[in-house]
Amino acid sequence: MSVASPAVWAHRLIAPGRLQAVEVDEPGEPAPGRVVARFEAGGICGSDLPSFLGARDLIVGASHGEPGYPMHELVGVVEASAAEDLPVGTRVVGWAEGHLGLAERFVARADQVCAIGDELPPVHATVIQPLCTVLYAVRRLGDVSGARVAVIGQGSIGLLFSYALKAAGAAHVTGIDPIDRRDVGQAFGVDAMEWSTASVWAASLRDDERPGIVVEAVGHQAGTLEDAVEAVALGGTVLAFGVPDETHYAFPFARFFRKDLTLVAGVTRDRRRSLAAARDYLLEHRALLDAYVTDVVPVAEAQAAFELAAKPAAGRLKVVLQG
Length: 323
Prior knowledge:
Blueprint: E1 7-15, E2 18-25, E3 34-43, H1 48-52, E4 73-81, E5 91-95, E6 105-109, E7 113-116, H2 122-125, H3 128-140, E8 148-152, H4 156-167, E9 172-177, E10 192-195, H5 198-204, E11 213-216, H6 223-231, E12 237-240, H7 253-258, E13 262-265, H8 271-284, H9 287-292, E14 293-298, H10 302-309, E15 318-322
Parallel strand pairs: 8-9, 8-11, 9-10, 11-12, 12-13, 14-15
Antiparallel strand pairs: 1-2, 3-4, 3-6, 3-15, 4-5, 5-7
Helix pairs in contact: 3-4, 3-8, 5-6
């Protein structure tokens, strides 16, 4: 006679913009190189929101309707382990496998999480995951000392770029967002916060005002990438960080070619090492947390939290679910 597995809570996407609380079986023993962790906190990423609203996910695949989807920025405590260096009881931060993290128990690959101590509470520790992606991308730009840079999009990820670039020695950082972010610009190292659409800002620039580096931190459409190409200085670099929602985008290649530009794009690799670097960085730069995490919502109210995150507004940056 078989014994049913204990039930645990989860949320699943049942329609565009609609999550449903469900009970699911406790995960079994993890496969080699994986752990099962208990949810402590999870950050809602801008890349989760198109999936929440019904868009096809090109990175993860067809996970719509699976319990736990869509959430990947997780902090949890290991409760079952098939990874020697992540024993039971270890607190970890990183990616939930399959972006199935909106659940009481989630599975993670050992190479996509890193161990953390108790120096940061779980809600603040969630910031390590998005920060690691930003720091990894900034390193790919090389030495930015003395550079004039601009970041299109000043939501939670764009502001991390502004902060990291300024901390890395950028001489002048411009932030661009259609939401008024002037109240937080100084806290994130922004020298000039433009309350504007990217297209209007790019069209307004004189040649001597053009930044040498433009970060596109919006994604999910091609317009802001075109604005970045238009805005950047001759011989400059565009960092395409925003996640694409389509397999192909129209790209202003003639303009890109004539301006002799460099395009940098891609996902975060070497994730455990990148997470560990971000953990150490955040412990040295705790001041950014006060302005960064603006909304903490009980995980039982996931529907309300995702609705909140899907409606950008002045004064709202990172929305975090707490277990």
